[in-house]
Amino acid sequence: MTDQHEPADITTVTADAPQMQPLAKDPDAMANKIGLLFILGLICFLGFGVAYWQDAAFWLYGTLIGAGLVALGSGFIAWGKYLLPKGPFVEERHVLASSTEERTAFSAALMERGVAPIKRRKALGALLGGSLGVFSIVALFPLVRSLGPLPGDSLATTNWKKGTRLVDINGNFIHIDQIDVGGFATVFPEGLQLTDDGQAIDQTFLIRVDTEPFTTAKGREDWTPSGYVAYSKLCTHLGCPVGLYEQQLEVLVCPCHQSMFKVREAAIPTFGPAPRPLPQLPLAVDSDGYLFAAAGYNEPVGPGYWERP
Amino acid sequence: MTATATPRTKRQKKEAAGPYGNVGKTVDVLDERLGFAKGGRVFMDKIFPDHWSFMLGEIALYSFVVLLVTGVFLTLYFVPSQRLMTVPMDFPYKPLRGDTVSEAFYSTINMSFNVRCGLLMRQMHHWACDIFVASIVVHMARVFFTGAFRKPREANWLVGVTLLILAITNGFLGYSLPDDLVSGTGIRIADSIMLSIPVIGSYVSFFVFGGTFPGDIVIERFFIIHVLLVPGAIMGLVGAHLGLLVRQKHTQFPGKGRTERNVVGSPMFPVFIFKTQGFLFMVLGACALLGALAQINPVWQFGQYYAANISYAVQPDWYMGFLDGLLRVMPAWEFNNFGYTIPLEVTFPAVIFPGIVFNIAMAWPWIEQQFTKDKQMHHLLDRPRDVPHRTAFGVAFFALLAILFIASSTDVLANFFHVSLNFVLILMRVLCFVVPVIAYPVTYFICIELQGGGSLMGKRKRANVVVRTEEGEYIANPSDPRPGDAHEELDATPVPTFIIDEAVVVEAEEVVSEGGVKVAAR
Ligand code: HEM
Ligand code: FES
To answer: What is A156-293's CATH topology?
Structure first.
């Protein structure tokens, strides 16, 4: 921090040097103004104490302490700026670099005393390096590997299986007559509606688009009984829940970055950054008229990742 | 003899105490043991240039102080746990009574409603965070545009960029803690960004969340990183930053008496101490006023995070805006080959682009050296207009970030101007390229123009008074300088160690001359 080699200069200045004068034209008037600021601060702080004690509204005591601090701060600054010597003052900038001899001496000490004799023991050095290397790798086991399980194929699977019944957030089954055309619901696999996995991964958007079955894509002829269609609710962009249904246009909109998916056409994205259609869940109706999954999703839901086929 | 006699009169007492009384004695005691007097005085004499732009770093420092103080208060009430519980039926905020929420969320709203000063502290903490990041950015901009990062200060520039990254990171982590609907959505997006990293993405995600999103441990982990690891690192780096600053001394703008071999301004003690102390209180006060009067992050209105819920118009804190904007304008380019996927529509905006930005920022001192071949030491600052290429580059760069920031509200813009979302999106894509490309030459030529201003720059323009003489001749005379601009600065004087008040010295001579000490007797 300080340069030990240079003696710190002792300098003397007379009190009436122009640089020693305050900046204020009338220092006493300025002192009075600053005094007022400090009094204002004092009053505000007392006010804060009372307001706190009386449990006043938080904005009131917040304002009081804030105003008090601003008054105190501006008084402090004004004191420094207007009443203390105005300067300007100057300080020498000493060269930081050491002399050439000192530098050479340092390198010499480093190399001749330490590095050269150590280098002589090549084998020892290699052993030391090897063991430090292994240490730094195994140290990662507890520091990194313990943090969580390996992903395996869990990103590619959901809890939807052939025959899983659809339930809403309250755990009620969805009856085929329950939702009118244009209506929708967020559904989960039976029993998982309140679990983390059910909420975060399995969430599915069920829409009644029509009264009759329709075909969203080739090979999906019988996936939409009574005009019900179900898509994964996880945006293929960044996994936000695709929670807005624009009924007139029959598009699903993601509120995060406005990707839009065509509901009648296998949820292909028509706008926005989402790269893929939302996966579709094939639906079927049981003998009591309740909806269930005719199969699980046939592709991973949600955003893209490296291992995604 | 006088030494042993007990001092009786006032004058004797004063004499026995030495010229500087108890302070002097304390200094004696301490210096004998620690030897700090010489170095300590150099420190007291340290000169701080008087230019407003040197204050920006102080704002950053003091808003960090606010963060530490208010943050410690928050830890006394915040429970970093995702365990679910029921909001009691006597909770002051009625809409949440009886709801199932996490302990993290409950403790946040509980400290907002049931702890005196709790809401004030929370809002101050959040405001201080926004001010902290903003002041770091502006401070960096001044260092960049004036060339303060040049040799020998490259290392401090690196420390600064690292501090910015840490500040943004910690802001995001803190924002995530209350477990409300908005922050939970943010964490989900962060998870998807991790997943988008080629090869290791899913491992990163699983190790952060301890399994699949959301898991039950992420808030606890974010908490300890947010309150201990990152603030600790920030404190260490701030120490290094200031240590380097003291060691290498301040830069200064060129001006009267200012050279590469000196620093002109106010000394640390007492002038700067007063100003900076006052400034600390101002920043504290500003945060308190904002916290008291401007609502920020009212999490009780968003509600608990449930992974299947979403609210409309989710917006991250402002410093994340440019990422969100780029995520919106990036085309949906996902690559799928040989059974592997690269979701470039995410990887590019959220991983590669910030990587490029911060790497350019880090490497800038050396990038510039490649062009200028300048290996000299620099303690005098550049006027931005004198380095037109750097200035133009910086402006183009900030223009790009500004466009991306604006692009983070494409939907709001479309609604506001009643145009189609598609139009706004395409416009933004075009602007991302056009604006920086235009900003560069425009800035460049403005700089060249300004260089003509010469020594009058920085002073207000003087009017030209045109007079018509009796012969019909017109003469233009510049008017008098405006008040304040005529002010000529005094010559700089060394920081005084001893101040001699001549009038008093004469009178005090007999008292102290024996010891041979020069003294400012008062
Ligand atoms: C490095 C600078 C820091 C930044 C940028 C930062 C930022 C934030 C932000 C934006 C929040 C969300 C606040 C809200 O609106 O609810 C937050 C919450 C929190 N922060 Fe910090 N913080 C910092 C340092 C600290 C420190 C040093 C501590 C404690 C030692 C701390 C403790 C907390 C706690 C307990 C919460 C959660 C409580 C709540 O959200 O109300 N922070 N932080
Ligand atoms: S997460 Fe749906 S558009 Fe980005």
So the answer is: Rieske Iron-sulfur Protein (2.102.10)
